Amino acid sequence: MSIISSKDVNEIIRKTLSIINPKIMNHGDVTGYILFKMLECEQRYTEQELVDYTMLGILHDIGLYKESNVKNVADFETKNLWPHSIYGFLFLKYLSPMGDKAEIVLYHHLDYNKHGMIQSRYKHIIECLSLADKMDTFLHLKEENLEKEYFTLYRDIKFSGAALDLFWKAEERFNITANLLDGSYRKEMEELLAKRAFSEQYKKGFLEMLVYTIDFRSEHTVVHTLATVNFAQQLGRLKRLSGKDLRDLYYGALLHDLGKIAIPLNILESPGRLSDQDMKIMKAHVRITEMILEGIVDNDVLQIAVRHHEKLDGSGYHKGLTGDQLSLPQQIVAVADILSALYGKRSYKDAFPKEKIQSIIQGDADNGKINKSTVECLMSHYDQVIAEFEKEKENTIGLYLKIKEQYAIMIERFKEFN
Fold first, then answer.
1. Could you tell me which of 64, 101, 253, 280 has the fewest CB atoms within 10 Å of its CB?
2. Which residues face 346 on adjacent strands?
3. CA 128 to chain CA centroid, nearest Å
C-alpha cells in the first residue's frame, strides 16, 4: 500500500506551506495553473513533464518562505528578485525530486532581453513561467502601481512576446481567467495530479522536501528530525521489525515534527525553560501535525507521527494514551525522539555526554514511561547507533553548508544581471 496518493502530494504541500504564508502559496497555485494551461495548449509534453513543470510553477517562490516579513508578494515579485530566486533554486536543486529542472526557478525573474546571457535547455519553460508569474502578480498590484499598457510596452523586453501569445491562445481555448475567478482551476490541478501515478521515489522526495521546509523556521528542528529518522530506523532494524513496519517507521519519524512549522521561532529556539503558556503552544505542534497529515497519509504512518510524545503510563500528550494503545513502531519513535533531543546540539545547549543521555533514557524506561526492551536494545548497541548517525549527519550538515556557500557566491555573481 502507498504512503500517500499521487493526487495528495500537492495537497500536503499546500497545507504545510500555507501555514507559513497563505499569500505565497496562493500565488504559487495560480502561477502553476497558468503555466500548466499554457504548456498543455502546446500539446508537446508528456504527462510527467506537465506535472514537473506545474509543480515547479507552484513552488517557484519557495525561497520567499524564508523571508519573515512577506506581507505583499507583489513587492517581492517586482523589487527583491534575486535573493528568493537563488535560494529557491538551491532548495529545489538539492532537496526536491525535481533538482534537474531547478534552474527554471532560478531565472524566472530575468528580463527576456537578457536571456542571451544564460545557457539553459529550459529557456522556453523559463519564458512561460516568467509570463505566468507576471500575469498573476499584475492581477494583485494596486491600479496606481500598474503601468498602463505594460504588456505592450515591454513585449520582448521584460517578457517573451511568444509566451504572451501562447497565454492568449491558452486563454481562448481553456478560459484560464474565468477558471481562476470561480475556483474551478483547483479541480483541474487535482485531476492532472491524480491521473499521473507518481513513483514512490518521487513522492518520497516531496515528503522529504517538506521536512526541509521547517528549515525556513529552524535549522535545528530539521537536524533533530533527521536524527530521529536515523535513530528510529536503526532501532527498528535491531528490533527486527517487518519491512512494512520499517517503512511506516521511516515516514512516521520523518513527518513527526511537521507541525512545528506553525510554532513561533522564539519558542522553537527559546534559550531557556519554556513558560507554561509557551509549553502549551509548543505542545500544539502534535495536533497541527495531525491536522496536516490526517486523511492524506497512510493511517499507520499518521499514528506513528502524532504519538511520539505519548507515554506508556498515560502521562504524555496530546491524547494521554497508555502502553496497550501504542504499537511498537510508535514506541520506538518515542525513544528515538528523546535520544535525538538529548544528543543534539542546540543554540541553547551543547550535546549531553553519553552517561547523562543513557541515565535519562534509562530512567524513563525504569519509570514505565517508554519501551523498556527498546531502551535495552539501544543501550546494548549505543556506540554503534551513534557512530552510524554521525556518518549520516555529515551528509545532512554538508548539504546545508553547500547551500549556504553557493548562495553567497551566486548572490555576488548575479549582480551582473541587475
1. 280
2. 349
3. 24
